Amino acid sequence: MEADIIHEGFSKSIQQHGLVYAYFLADGDSSTYCRIKDVYVGITVQKIECINHVLRNLNTKLRNIASNAVKRRYISKEERSLPRAESRFKRIGLAVQRACRYYKDLGNWECNWKDLREDIRNVPYHIFGRHTNCKSYFQCSKKGQEEDLVDQLKSTPLFLEVVDAIDRVASLARSLIRRENSNIVECYFSVCAKYLEGKRKNLGSGSLYHQRISAATLSFNNAKFWAADFYKMIHCKSPCAKWKLEKLRSVRQRHQPTNTRKPRIISFPFLKAGRGDDHYGTNPDRPDLNEETLQVEMDSIRDSVKVTKERQEEIQIATQDQSNSDL
Ligand SMILES: [Zn+2]
């Protein structure tokens, strides 16, 4: 149903508003994106991933690694006992965010996303003490003082899982460089849900639904009641005095200092019992990579398996016995 609503919105955008929606900001729901990708003739709608959802998924994966809840590999207790494991894992998300912030400010996103991708792929090496490929903006304060654990860890399931999780984030660099999120939509829908009194009541008949959505929109955009300015614009006369007083009260209330909530503390349960959620896989459906991103990923894999001519001959000789070969 959600896909149908979004598809209808996109397909009527030119007719209703004279606009083409060139970008679609979402949180990884590929079935919706596939429906609207080619809705305009000659224009492909681009998908932008919400950075908050990407980081939340990354943290979920890291939490699963920390509690040995990944399905493909077994992460031993020894690996999970590595020094300052929890603080290292906390630095992963921060490092990704720092890289995204740096490249967003740098501009020229159409070219720089490739550098962002490389910097994100370097994050596992940075957090495990190898700073050789860290750019200066990372300000690796622990450079030189920290032990380089990469050689010791690089073939362990823990390191491989961290690299896999980071590689998935890096493949979204083209979106992440924009640092867009869907917060405003989530906030708006929370106001809609308040006016609709939840999802269970049948408020779809007649014009009830539209009236409530209009009230939610005005409330979200302006104040906690229907704004006087709109009333005047529509009816060409001022609303009553009581209405104006309510507006003043609301504006005053909005400018009152509010208690800011403390940020949620993210923890990684190393060496504590934990299980993943059976209903969510580690690899949810995603749309196909676009051609340029696919080419970069393919080149990267090709480079990673490239060997010298001499090594090629050695491998050829060593694998002549096929399944009986030790290689
Ligand atoms: Zn570093």
Strand content is under 5%
Average predicted confidence as pLDDT: 83
Q: In the residues, how many domains can be counted?
A: 4
What is the 3D form?
elongated
Integer-rounded radius of gyration? 26 Å
* Element-level helix/strand string: HHEHEHHHHHHHHHHHHHH
User: How many DSSP E strands?
Assistant: 2
Helix coverage percent: 40-55%
Q: State the major sheet.
A: 2 strands, parallel
Low-confidence stretches: 275-283
- Taking the alpha carbons of the first and last residues, their distance comes to 52 Å
Biggest sheet: strands side by side, in what order? 1-2
Structural class per helix/strand content?
mainly alpha
Q: Helix count? A: 17
List the ligand species. Answer: zinc ion
Search tags:
two-stranded parallel ribbon, binds zinc ion, mainly alpha, Mutator_transp_dom, Mutator-like transposase domain-containing protein
